[in-house]
Amino acid sequence: MATSSQLHVAIVMDGNGRWAVERGLPRIAGHRQGAQVVHDIVAAAPGLGVTALTIFAFSTENWKRPPDEVSYILHLFVSMVTKWLPELVSQHVRVRIIGDRAALPGDVSASVEAIEKRTASCDGLHLNVALNYGGRAEILLAAKTFAAECAAGTATPEELTEERFDSYLWLKGEAPPDIVVRTGAESRVSNFLLWEMAYAELFFLDVLWPDFKLATLDMIVQKFKSRNRRFGSL
Length: 234
Ligand code: IPE
Ligand code: IPE
Ligand code: MG
What we know:
six-stranded parallel sheet; 15% strand; binds 3-methylbut-3-enyl trihydrogen diphosphate
């Protein structure tokens, strides 16, 4: 559980395609504008008390889209983050990419490694970019990893606790999200952080991601502070 000094915000950045289509632009223009919003949010998040930011950039289900769009999104995120690296390092942002890397194009996974290496010792905001991420895939991976340890005789089923299960997740080491935001006027989680969001406060917004403003994030953080989180108690 997060301590009061930690604040983990997770965002399903939805609505890029609609934002572009509304303007008569190709869908990729929406993704490009959406990436710019990420840049601005990352810079402002620490000032709002956010200590970890996890953003959903590409899901395990997004491979169902046309290959051009898939390739554009996968390359967009790593190329933008690579471009921002000097700035991110000066802001002490530690970047981690969560998701199944095995299926990423070779140049994308090479960039992922370089980004993580360059920011590994940064001690400021934790920026987790979910790329080829699925909540079910993450849970399955954890189950398979533990099952393999049991099969190898290095663990027994009774030893599995929630804390140990956490340690097999891509998002290991991060406190669970306090806030999950979804833009794009859909009230669903679309396979994001299924294990981790058990007690997150949810915010579903009508705004399309490229139109998301810092003031909206500020408003969400203020509303979050006034919510009464009981975690099952009275
Ligand atoms: C979110 O925007 C970005 C990804 C899912 C990669 P969309 O591309 O889903 O935009 P809409 O929902 O079609 O408007
Ligand atoms: C969720 O958006 C995934 C990301 C934002 C990366 P989608 O647009 O893929 O979700 P659905 O298809 O509307 O559920
Ligand atoms: Mg969408």
